[in-house]
Known about the structure:
This protein is mainly alpha-helical.
Amino acid sequence: MAAKLRQHSLSSVRKLQELVNDCNAQLASFRSVVQCIGTSADNSQLRKDLDASARACIRSCEACTACVLPQVRHEGVEFTRNASQYIGCVSAIVIEMKRCEALEATFPASDGIEPAISAENYISQRANPRLRKRSFLTVGPQPHATYNACAQN
């Protein structure tokens, strides 16, 4: 019984590690596209790529959250390390989303393409506990407060 439980625990840690790596990869992709806003490479295709990259980043973050939430009380060192990396990744995603929003406001698209994503709208939806019952780890403006809420539970 203990061996089965350990094996299940290891597989969930591996899954979390893969999801965190995917989240980091999506963040890197999003960041590289955001850096091109306002440069000579800025065009309608870049803005479409920005939108796709932002949405992929959000999807990977939500998938990782779905894996983390059921295991919040898990006490394994590997899980804690991966969860900490995930919280750092969420913090970086929020920063990049705000940066993207500011750059898109400063350098609006010449062909009338809407901004890729509104960081304030997305963050306020995720951070409002009344909108989600299980908001232990959500993308929010204060990831450290979110981490502290998890640590207390």
